[in-house]
Amino acid sequence: MAIATTVKPVVIIDGLSSSGSSSVANRVAETLDLERFSGGQLYRQLCSEKGFCPKDRNAPDFEEKFVIFAREIIPKHPEFDSTIDNKFLDLVRNATKPLLAEGRVTAALVTKYNIPVIVKVWITASLAERVKRYKLKHANTGAGQYTDEQLTKIISQKDQLDRERYLRIYNVDIFKPELYNDIVLDTTGQTLDQSYYQLINDPIFREKIKKLFDFYPDYGTSIVRWKCLECGYVYEGFVPIHMCPRCGNIDPDKFADLAQ
Ligand SMILES: [Zn+2]
Question: What spacing in Å lies between the alpha carbon of 227 and ligand 1's midpoint?
Protein backbone atom coordinates (compact mmCIF):
# COMPACT_ATOMS: atom_id res chain seq x y z
CA MET A 1 0.00 0.00 0.00
CA ALA A 2 1.25 3.41 -0.90
CA ILE A 3 1.52 5.89 1.93
CA ALA A 4 -1.10 8.58 1.53
CA THR A 5 0.57 11.89 0.86
CA THR A 6 -0.90 15.09 -0.43
CA VAL A 7 2.36 16.39 -1.81
CA LYS A 8 4.87 14.36 -3.77
CA PRO A 9 8.51 14.60 -2.72
CA VAL A 10 10.92 16.28 -5.05
CA VAL A 11 14.37 15.45 -6.39
CA ILE A 12 16.36 18.59 -7.18
CA ILE A 13 19.08 18.90 -9.80
CA ASP A 14 20.10 22.54 -10.26
CA GLY A 15 23.05 24.19 -11.93
CA LEU A 16 24.35 27.22 -13.76
CA SER A 17 23.70 27.68 -17.49
CA SER A 18 25.63 25.26 -19.72
CA SER A 19 26.77 23.28 -16.68
CA GLY A 20 25.13 20.10 -17.98
CA SER A 21 22.48 20.04 -15.24
CA SER A 22 19.49 19.54 -17.54
CA SER A 23 21.15 16.67 -19.42
CA VAL A 24 22.02 14.90 -16.17
CA ALA A 25 18.50 15.64 -14.87
CA ASN A 26 16.93 14.04 -17.95
CA ARG A 27 18.91 10.86 -17.43
CA VAL A 28 18.05 10.68 -13.75
CA ALA A 29 14.34 11.32 -14.44
CA GLU A 30 14.37 8.50 -16.95
CA THR A 31 16.15 6.11 -14.58
CA LEU A 32 13.92 6.85 -11.59
CA ASP A 33 10.74 7.28 -13.61
CA LEU A 34 10.10 10.81 -12.33
CA GLU A 35 7.97 13.64 -13.64
CA ARG A 36 9.98 16.65 -14.89
CA PHE A 37 9.84 20.32 -14.04
CA SER A 38 12.23 22.53 -15.98
CA GLY A 39 12.68 25.97 -14.47
CA GLY A 40 14.67 27.09 -17.50
CA GLN A 41 11.98 26.07 -19.95
CA LEU A 42 9.31 27.89 -17.97
CA TYR A 43 11.55 30.95 -17.66
CA ARG A 44 12.11 31.06 -21.44
CA GLN A 45 8.40 30.66 -22.04
CA LEU A 46 7.62 33.56 -19.69
CA CYS A 47 10.28 35.72 -21.37
CA SER A 48 8.57 35.12 -24.71
CA GLU A 49 5.23 36.12 -23.18
CA LYS A 50 6.83 39.36 -21.96
CA GLY A 51 7.99 40.22 -25.43
CA PHE A 52 11.33 38.52 -25.88
CA CYS A 53 11.09 37.25 -29.44
CA PRO A 54 11.83 33.52 -29.64
CA LYS A 55 13.28 34.07 -33.12
CA ASP A 56 16.00 36.16 -31.50
CA ARG A 57 17.39 32.94 -30.08
CA ASN A 58 19.01 32.23 -33.41
CA ALA A 59 20.38 35.74 -33.91
CA PRO A 60 24.13 36.29 -33.70
CA ASP A 61 23.67 38.83 -30.90
CA PHE A 62 21.09 36.76 -29.03
CA GLU A 63 22.96 36.71 -25.73
CA GLU A 64 23.54 40.48 -25.63
CA LYS A 65 19.85 41.04 -26.30
CA PHE A 66 18.92 38.60 -23.63
CA VAL A 67 21.20 40.17 -21.02
CA ILE A 68 19.56 43.54 -21.71
CA PHE A 69 16.13 41.95 -21.48
CA ALA A 70 16.98 40.27 -18.17
CA ARG A 71 18.45 43.46 -16.74
CA GLU A 72 15.83 45.95 -17.93
CA ILE A 73 12.54 44.25 -18.70
CA ILE A 74 12.19 41.46 -16.13
CA PRO A 75 12.49 43.76 -13.05
CA LYS A 76 9.47 45.69 -14.41
CA HIS A 77 7.37 42.54 -14.09
CA PRO A 78 7.29 41.55 -10.42
CA GLU A 79 4.66 38.91 -11.23
CA PHE A 80 7.33 37.06 -13.22
CA ASP A 81 8.75 35.28 -10.17
CA SER A 82 5.42 34.53 -8.53
CA THR A 83 4.26 32.93 -11.80
CA ILE A 84 7.24 30.56 -11.68
CA ASP A 85 6.49 29.74 -8.03
CA ASN A 86 2.82 29.10 -8.75
CA LYS A 87 3.41 26.89 -11.78
CA PHE A 88 5.88 24.86 -9.75
CA LEU A 89 3.42 24.50 -6.85
CA ASP A 90 0.66 23.43 -9.25
CA LEU A 91 2.90 20.73 -10.64
CA VAL A 92 3.87 19.52 -7.18
CA ARG A 93 0.20 19.43 -6.14
CA ASN A 94 -0.98 17.61 -9.23
CA ALA A 95 1.96 15.32 -9.88
CA THR A 96 1.07 11.67 -10.23
CA LYS A 97 4.69 10.67 -9.76
CA PRO A 98 7.53 12.17 -7.70
CA LEU A 99 8.94 15.20 -9.39
CA LEU A 100 12.41 15.94 -10.61
CA ALA A 101 12.84 19.71 -10.58
CA GLU A 102 15.69 21.21 -12.52
CA GLY A 103 16.70 24.81 -12.90
CA ARG A 104 18.85 27.39 -11.25
CA VAL A 105 17.40 27.42 -7.74
CA THR A 106 14.48 25.01 -7.47
CA ALA A 107 16.23 24.01 -4.21
CA ALA A 108 15.22 27.41 -2.84
CA LEU A 109 11.63 26.88 -3.99
CA VAL A 110 11.17 23.63 -2.06
CA THR A 111 12.63 25.28 1.04
CA LYS A 112 10.39 28.33 0.68
CA TYR A 113 7.22 26.21 0.47
CA ASN A 114 8.30 23.39 2.82
CA ILE A 115 7.92 20.73 0.14
CA PRO A 116 9.36 17.32 1.08
CA VAL A 117 12.64 16.86 -0.72
CA ILE A 118 14.55 13.68 -1.44
CA VAL A 119 17.92 15.13 -2.40
CA LYS A 120 19.30 18.45 -3.61
CA VAL A 121 22.05 18.25 -6.21
CA TRP A 122 24.02 21.12 -7.72
CA ILE A 123 25.85 20.45 -10.99
CA THR A 124 28.79 22.68 -11.75
CA ALA A 125 31.61 22.97 -14.29
CA SER A 126 34.45 25.40 -14.87
CA LEU A 127 33.73 28.53 -16.89
CA ALA A 128 35.98 27.29 -19.71
CA GLU A 129 34.07 24.00 -19.80
CA ARG A 130 30.72 25.81 -19.88
CA VAL A 131 31.95 27.96 -22.78
CA LYS A 132 32.90 24.77 -24.63
CA ARG A 133 29.49 23.17 -23.99
CA TYR A 134 27.65 26.33 -25.00
CA LYS A 135 29.50 26.35 -28.33
CA LEU A 136 28.71 22.70 -28.98
CA LYS A 137 25.04 23.16 -28.17
CA HIS A 138 24.63 26.29 -30.30
CA ALA A 139 26.97 25.29 -33.11
CA ASN A 140 24.23 25.51 -35.73
CA THR A 141 22.72 28.83 -34.64
CA GLY A 142 23.85 32.45 -34.85
CA ALA A 143 25.00 32.25 -31.24
CA GLY A 144 27.50 29.59 -32.28
CA GLN A 145 29.59 32.35 -33.86
CA TYR A 146 30.72 33.86 -30.55
CA THR A 147 34.41 33.63 -29.77
CA ASP A 148 35.56 32.00 -26.53
CA GLU A 149 36.45 35.43 -25.14
CA GLN A 150 33.01 36.83 -25.90
CA LEU A 151 31.28 33.83 -24.39
CA THR A 152 33.40 33.91 -21.26
CA LYS A 153 32.31 37.51 -20.73
CA ILE A 154 28.64 36.85 -21.56
CA ILE A 155 28.32 33.77 -19.35
CA SER A 156 29.99 35.61 -16.44
CA GLN A 157 27.55 38.49 -16.88
CA LYS A 158 24.61 36.09 -16.87
CA ASP A 159 25.94 34.35 -13.75
CA GLN A 160 26.15 37.69 -12.00
CA LEU A 161 22.61 38.66 -13.06
CA ASP A 162 21.29 35.29 -11.90
CA ARG A 163 23.15 35.64 -8.64
CA GLU A 164 21.65 39.06 -7.89
CA ARG A 165 18.20 37.90 -8.92
CA TYR A 166 18.15 34.83 -6.68
CA LEU A 167 19.72 36.61 -3.74
CA ARG A 168 16.92 39.13 -4.03
CA ILE A 169 13.97 36.78 -4.46
CA TYR A 170 15.02 33.61 -2.60
CA ASN A 171 17.93 34.79 -0.46
CA VAL A 172 20.29 32.08 -1.76
CA ASP A 173 23.75 32.66 -3.20
CA ILE A 174 24.27 30.52 -6.31
CA PHE A 175 28.02 31.13 -5.96
CA LYS A 176 27.88 29.15 -2.70
CA PRO A 177 25.75 26.13 -3.69
CA GLU A 178 27.29 23.93 -0.98
CA LEU A 179 25.38 25.97 1.61
CA TYR A 180 21.96 24.77 0.50
CA ASN A 181 22.53 21.55 -1.50
CA ASP A 182 23.34 17.99 -0.39
CA ILE A 183 25.72 17.26 -3.24
CA VAL A 184 27.84 19.55 -5.43
CA LEU A 185 29.09 17.70 -8.48
CA ASP A 186 31.83 19.20 -10.64
CA THR A 187 31.49 17.78 -14.16
CA THR A 188 34.44 19.59 -15.74
CA GLY A 189 36.10 17.36 -18.32
CA GLN A 190 33.39 14.69 -18.05
CA THR A 191 31.06 13.28 -20.66
CA LEU A 192 27.34 13.17 -19.85
CA ASP A 193 27.65 9.43 -19.16
CA GLN A 194 30.48 10.00 -16.71
CA SER A 195 28.59 12.73 -14.85
CA TYR A 196 25.45 10.65 -14.69
CA TYR A 197 27.24 7.57 -13.34
CA GLN A 198 29.22 9.63 -10.86
CA LEU A 199 25.98 11.04 -9.50
CA ILE A 200 23.97 7.81 -9.26
CA ASN A 201 26.93 6.10 -7.59
CA ASP A 202 27.52 8.95 -5.12
CA PRO A 203 27.05 7.50 -1.59
CA ILE A 204 25.00 10.49 -0.41
CA PHE A 205 22.78 10.26 -3.46
CA ARG A 206 22.30 6.50 -3.03
CA GLU A 207 21.42 6.94 0.62
CA LYS A 208 19.02 9.86 0.15
CA ILE A 209 17.26 8.41 -2.86
CA LYS A 210 16.06 5.52 -0.67
CA LYS A 211 13.56 7.97 0.82
CA LEU A 212 11.66 7.71 -2.45
CA PHE A 213 10.70 4.18 -1.45
CA ASP A 214 8.92 5.40 1.69
CA PHE A 215 6.55 7.24 -0.60
CA TYR A 216 6.54 4.65 -3.35
CA PRO A 217 7.01 1.15 -1.97
CA ASP A 218 6.73 -0.38 -5.41
CA TYR A 219 9.92 1.34 -6.42
CA GLY A 220 12.67 -1.26 -6.10
CA THR A 221 15.14 -1.04 -3.26
CA SER A 222 17.99 -2.23 -5.42
CA ILE A 223 19.08 -1.17 -8.85
CA VAL A 224 17.70 -3.12 -11.79
CA ARG A 225 20.29 -3.86 -14.50
CA TRP A 226 18.85 -4.71 -17.87
CA LYS A 227 20.61 -4.98 -21.17
CA CYS A 228 18.75 -4.20 -24.38
CA LEU A 229 19.55 -7.02 -26.81
CA GLU A 230 18.66 -4.82 -29.78
CA CYS A 231 21.26 -2.09 -29.25
CA GLY A 232 23.35 -3.18 -26.26
CA TYR A 233 22.19 -0.35 -24.00
CA VAL A 234 22.48 -1.23 -20.32
CA TYR A 235 19.75 0.28 -18.15
CA GLU A 236 20.35 0.77 -14.46
CA GLY A 237 17.50 2.06 -12.37
CA PHE A 238 15.20 1.57 -9.42
CA VAL A 239 12.13 0.87 -11.51
CA PRO A 240 11.76 -1.62 -14.33
CA ILE A 241 11.58 0.00 -17.75
CA HIS A 242 9.32 -1.03 -20.59
CA MET A 243 11.16 0.71 -23.40
CA CYS A 244 14.84 0.97 -24.19
CA PRO A 245 15.73 4.68 -23.75
CA ARG A 246 18.26 4.44 -26.56
CA CYS A 247 16.58 2.47 -29.39
CA GLY A 248 12.93 2.29 -28.31
CA ASN A 249 12.83 -1.53 -28.17
CA ILE A 250 9.67 -2.59 -26.31
CA ASP A 251 9.87 -6.36 -26.80
CA PRO A 252 10.21 -7.88 -23.31
CA ASP A 253 11.97 -10.90 -24.81
CA LYS A 254 14.72 -8.63 -26.04
CA PHE A 255 15.96 -7.53 -22.62
CA ALA A 256 18.49 -9.54 -20.62
CA ASP A 257 18.43 -9.24 -16.82
CA LEU A 258 22.09 -8.72 -15.84
CA ALA A 259 21.33 -9.15 -12.14
CA GLN A 260 20.55 -12.84 -12.62
ZN1 LIG B 1 18.01 -0.59 -27.20
Answer: 8
